[in-house]
Specification:
Blueprint: H1 3-11, E1 21-23, E2 46-48, E3 68-70, H2 81-86, E4 92-94, H3 103-107, E5 117-119, H4 131-138, E6 144-145, H5 158-178, H6 184-268
Parallel strand pairs: 1-2, 2-3, 3-4, 4-5, 5-6
Length: 269
Amino acid sequence: MEMKKRINLELRDRAPEEVTELVLDNCLCVNGEIEGLNDTFKKLEFLSMANVELSSLARLPSLNKLRKLELSDNIISGGLEVLAEKCPNLTYLNLSGNKIKDLSTVEALQNLKNLKSLDLFNCEITNLEDYRESIFELLQQITYLDGFDQEDNEAPDSEEEDDEDGDEDDEEEEEDEAGPPEGYEEEEEEEEEDEDEDEDEAGSELGEGEEEVGLSYLMKEEIQDEEDDDDYVEEGEEEEEEEEEEEEEGLRGEKRKRDAEDDGEEEDD
């Protein structure tokens, strides 16, 4: 697809003044130059033109708000001084896979005062001895070269940072979801109250049962005592009757003795 048609497609019925990001990767440049991109893209902050067979930046429009420029896998060999004039606020520039061979070509980037990250991966310049030390010395404003700083610390990826923030938000949401649902505490309290009531009822029932057992036991004791008293009374009466019988027998014996004596006296007479 030609560059101009791709730009019209990317606009999606929007005015160029409203566009902040524009991705034109894998389009074909006409005669190695940009066609359809002009000064009306005043708010453009991110522009990607990877693998579009771009050989010159001479036709690049003025993009004062542009911060990130992707130009990887093209055939650019020089003319980088245009960037400081047309895109003075660049912070990230990717020139990997181009035809940049020597330090003098990169020297033109010294005027990009806000440039923090430069990528020259897969360019011939990377084969130079002390390549990294030389670039950091030449462009003292940059922090990262080919994705690493001078201490070989990897540059943070803005997308990864966004993902991390998203993961943190997801974790917070999961914690909220994992927490007790609304009304859970109230239900738990109600269940505890119900359990207490059940225990009280069980206790009261048990108490009544214990009272019943106690009453029946006392009643049995009283009945047993009465029976014992009856037994005692009956035994006492039997003893009294036996004594009375013995007394009666004794009296009868004495009477018989007296009668015998009286009979003897009569015979003597």
